UniProtKB/TrEMBL annotation, chain A:
<dbReference type="InterPro" id="IPR038592">
    <property type="entry name" value="CheD-like_sf"/>
</dbReference>
<dbReference type="GO" id="GO:0006935">
    <property type="term" value="P:chemotaxis"/>
</dbReference>
<comment type="similarity">
    <text>Belongs to the CheD family.</text>
</comment>
<dbReference type="InterPro" id="IPR005659">
    <property type="entry name" value="Chemorcpt_Glu_NH3ase_CheD"/>
</dbReference>
<dbReference type="InterPro" id="IPR011324">
    <property type="entry name" value="Cytotoxic_necrot_fac-like_cat"/>
</dbReference>
<dbReference type="Pfam" id="PF03975">
    <property type="entry name" value="CheD"/>
</dbReference>
<comment type="function">
    <text>Probably deamidates glutamine residues to glutamate on methyl-accepting chemotaxis receptors (MCPs), playing an important role in chemotaxis.</text>
</comment>
<keyword id="KW-0145">Chemotaxis</keyword>
<keyword id="KW-0378">Hydrolase</keyword>
Automatic annotation (TrEMBL), chain B:
<keyword id="KW-0378">Hydrolase</keyword>
<feature type="domain" description="CheC-like protein">
    <location>
        <begin position="109"/>
        <end position="144"/>
    </location>
</feature>
<dbReference type="Pfam" id="PF04509">
    <property type="entry name" value="CheC"/>
</dbReference>
<dbReference type="GO" id="GO:0006935">
    <property type="term" value="P:chemotaxis"/>
</dbReference>
<feature type="domain" description="CheC-like protein">
    <location>
        <begin position="10"/>
        <end position="46"/>
    </location>
</feature>
<dbReference type="InterPro" id="IPR007597">
    <property type="entry name" value="CheC"/>
</dbReference>
<dbReference type="GO" id="GO:0016787">
    <property type="term" value="F:hydrolase activity"/>
</dbReference>
<protein>
    <submittedName>
        <fullName>CheY-P-specific phosphatase CheC</fullName>
    </submittedName>
</protein>
<dbReference type="InterPro" id="IPR028976">
    <property type="entry name" value="CheC-like_sf"/>
</dbReference>
Length: 162, 204
């Protein structure tokens, strides 16, 4: 790959055509959603921070939430020529970095993010091809728009491609 | 005030000033614990959208030890203390009075010791804040994670994510001269806490 990967920050999303690569670093309880159109070779990556926009007071940034983020990512990809019915998904993240004694529901945010993302993908009728979620460790993910492969890097658990 | 992005220069300076006093207290505690002289950098107060906040950390992928405490109640906020992973061993050796280089791996006892450091640092910091605001802050027990800086900070920022698209990060760096230890201390107030702080400081 000769081109620099496109960086996607926290609560941010990007869509790109092949041969570009999308990368997001340091996913903790956030969830990285990767969507891909295998025919048009258009990919998208959203770094989802929170499960539900309806629970929030301000929704200026749609990329922050699972529900609005997934919808917006699809829209951005369609603009680049992707066809929604062809999209497939790979997701990673949703860990729990800190373990508080007697942790409340609020602290299980990684799990809630993962559940919310899956629900949104189901509603959009997008099939999940691979999932690497949970645990208590951070992940950096790199998504190839050329072949839809997702490289997952961790500090304690090594690397893998899904 | 609707968002952190609306803070002006005077308000930021006021926040840096109380942070300086809080961190000064914490640095003294750290110095006593380690039996070493600990210096402190000028505090930085950064307001940034979430997608840029990682830039302040010097790499979201760098491996760090992060101690995190939450303050609930009237003034909710997060307190995070980050030390680069390779410097944690040096910390441990100092605490346990061992020859430097003894610690090569971390066990449960080391984890407890690190949590205690975070506890004492945050306590000293909050004491200074209490003196200003006449409020009592009761922090949670500390939680510890050793992993990517971005993943750790991300988890802490989620608390603020519910209210804002921006985060205010007040950062103090503790420096141990001989071995160049850099500990980063972050104060992450929720918007209503910030409002309270600014009002108490007379800049709102």
């Amino acid at each position: 790959m000769t081109t620099e990967p496109i960086k996607v920050g926290m609560a941010d999303l990007r869509a790109a055509p092949a041969p570009l690569t999308l990368i997001t670093t340091g996913l903790g309880s956030c969830v990285g959603v990767c969507l891909w159109d295998p025919i048009m070779k258009v990919g998208g990556l959203a770094h989802i921070m929170l499960p539900d926009s309806t629970q929030s007071r301000s929704i200026q940034n749609k990329a922050k939430y699972a529900d609005t983020g997934v919808t917006l990512l699809i829209e951005e990809m369609v603009k680049l020529g992707a066809v929604k019915s062809r999209l497939v998904a790979k997701i990673a993240g949703g860990a729990q970095m800190f373990n508080f004694p007697g942790a409340s529901n609020v602290m299980r945010i990684g799990e809630r993010n993962t559940e919310a993302v899956k629900k949104c993908l189901e509603q959009e009728k997008i099939r999940i091809l691979a999932e690497d979620t949970g645990g208590n460790f951070g992940r950096t993910i790199e998504f190839s728009t050329t072949d839809g492969q997702l490289l997952i890097k961790t500090i304690s658990k090594g690397e893998k491609v899904v | 005030m609707k968002d952190f992005s609306e803070l002006n220069a005077i308000q930021l300076d006021a926040l840096k000033e109380i942070s300086n006093i809080g961190a000064g207290n914490a640095a003294t505690s750290l110095s006593l614990m380690l039996g070493r002289k600990i210096d402190m950098s000028v505090p930085k107060a950064n307001i940034a959208p979430f997608n840029q906040i990682m830039n302040y950390l010097g790499g979201a992928e760098s491996e760090v030890a992060g101690g995190y405490m939450r303050v609930d109640g009237e003034s909710p906020m997060g307190i995070l203390f980050l030390i680069p992973k390779d410097q944690v061993y040096f910390f441990i050796d100092l605490i346990f009075g061992q020859p430097l280089g003894t610690t090569q791996d971390l066990n449960e006892m080391h984890f407890s010791a690190l949590k205690e450091i975070v506890n004492i640092l945050a306590g000293s910091y909050l004491n200074a804040l209490s003196a200003f605001t006449q409020q009592v802050y009761s922090p949670s027990v500390p939680a510890l994670a050793i992993d990517m800086a971005g993943a750790i900070l991300g988890d802490v920022l989620q608390q603020i994510g519910e209210f804002s698209d921006y985060a205010l990060v007040i950062e103090n760096v503790f420096i141990e001269q001989e071995r160049h230890i850099n500990g980063h201390f972050f104060l992450l107030p929720e918007p209503k806490t910030l409002e309270l702080l600014l009002r108490t400081l007379g800049v709102l």
